Amino acid sequence: MPSSTGLFHAAIMQSNPLGLPFKTAEQAEATGGVFMTALRCRNRADQLACLKAAPLDAILEAAGNPYLSLAVLEQRMAGFLNWAPVVDGDLIIGQPVELALQRGAEVPVLLGVNQHEGTFFMAGEPDADPITDFGYSFFLSTMFGSEDLRAITAGYPSTGTGDNRDRVIEIVNDYLFQCPNRAVAAAATGPTYYYQFEQVSEFNLLPAIPTCADEACHGDELPYVFNSGVGAAAFTDEEESLADSIAAYWGRFVGGLHNPSLAGLARWPDVRTAGEYQVLALPVTTARIDPRGCELWDALGYPVKEDLAAQ
After folding, report:
1. Do 185 and 67 belong to one domain?
2. Closest to 277 (Cα-Cα) out of 287, 285, 267
3. 34 lies in the same domain as 12
4. Which of 37, 206, 234, 237 is 20 to 30 Å from 64 by CA-CA measure?
5. Angle CA(62)–CA(67)–CA(69) in degrees, nearest 5?
6. 278 and 200: one domain?
7. Between β-strands 192-197 and 276-280, what pairing exists: parallel, antiparallel or unpaired?
8. pLDDT at 125
9. In a domain, 111, yes or no
10. Whether 86 and 31 share a structural domain
11. Residue 213: CA atoms inside 13 Å, Cβ hemisphere, count?
12. Confidence at residue 251, expressed as pLDDT on a 0 to 100 scale
């Protein structure tokens, strides 16, 4: 966003799905057209007036139209979310992850992910049907294209159990969250502090996803960042101490020098120079970035657009 130049002294990004591409203007227009058709406003002379007059129930029904879900067949990963920012060439001039990798983040950045981001998005209901080998292959070719199917299945082979849901969760975790965030951190030109939140709390913020009781799922860091462990999500004494530490790190980063190590806690090194990141769990530790595990996605690019076999 060129218009944001000079407006930010520093930035914090938590669990940003950087592998998820924004829609082009043409893709957004196609999605909007399906929605407006479902709302019976597309052929009206004044579409805006029709949209404003539509009752809430009708809007929600149109938003749930199954044809909107079919966007992934044409838009691939860009169809994963129907409503998202759009690369219009003016306000947003390109895919954010591509620009971040090309230019590097110039302002100080604190960014990171949770250990099991993919579970929230792909776990499904507890009694969900299994993702068969055919379903798995269809998912990969739909989201990434058939040209890279062989390379991806080599890195993430079928489980052989008849259910590949865990493999899909792993791919979403790695491609949307883990690997592009690491790549952006490595490409930064300003001070950069990377973390992975790994604390498995005594409470489950997502009771509809039982697996998250034993994992650090998407959003699980929020009570710690805002120190809001109350009610059903009440902290233990140990969790309260972790929340205090995380709040201190974030607060010191927001401060004038933008350095979380000034919190007086375990030193948090700049990932660009030290190759290390902070593991936010009990106890807080520092770990080295493992270069293995992201080679495939780094080679395919964010968003995936190259035929790896042809390189």
Report:
1. no
2. 287
3. no
4. 206
5. 95
6. yes
7. parallel
8. 81
9. yes
10. yes
11. 5
12. 93
Contacts of 80 by beta carbon, 8 Å cutoff, 6+ apart: 20, 72, 143
- Among 39, 74, 91, the domain boundary falls at 91
Q: What is the mean pLDDT of each run of 10 residues along the chain (311 residues)?
A: 85 94 90 91 92 94 84 71 87 90 91 96 86 93 85 93 94 95 94 97 94 96 93 93 95 90 88 94 93 87 59 39
Query: Where do we find the tokens 């950045």?
Result: 109
Burial 23-40 (b: 16+ CB within 10 A, else e): bbeebbebbbebbbebbe
Distances (CA, A) of 115 to 178, 180, 221: 8, 14, 10
How many domains is the chain built from?
Answer: 2
What is the DSSP pairing of strand 86-87 with strand 109-114? unpaired
Residue 181 located in a structural domain: yes
Look at residues 91, 113, 144 and tell me which one is the last residue of a structural domain.
91
- Could you give the dihedral angle defined by the CA atoms of residues 153, 158, 163 and 165, in that order, rounded to the nearest 10 degrees? -40
Going by C-beta distance under 8 Å and a sequence separation of 6 or more, which residues neighbour residue 116? 169, 173, 212, 215, 216, 217, 218
271 vs 305: CA distance, rounded Å: 28
Please give the model's pTM, rounded to 2 decimal places: 0.89
Instruction: Report the Cα 139 to chain-centroid distance in Å.
Output: 18
* 3-state SS class at 74: helix
Can you give the pLDDT at residue 72? 65
Residues 14 and 26 in one domain: no
Instruction: Supply the pLDDT for residue 141.
Output: 87
Does residue 14 sit in the same domain as residue 68? Answer: no
Radius of gyration of the chain (CA): 21
For residue 287, the Cα-to-chain-centroid distance in whole angstroms is 22
| Helix (H) or strand (E) run with residue 287 in it | strand 285-288
Query: CA-CA distances (angstroms) from residue 81 to 23, 70, 174?
Result: 9, 11, 18
Q: Collapse the DSSP code of 264 into the 3-class scheme (helix H, G, I; strand E, B; otherwise coil) and give the result.
A: coil
Residue numbers of the domain that contains 60: 22-91
Residues 204 and 284 in one domain: yes
Cβ atoms < 10 Å from Cβ of 303: 19
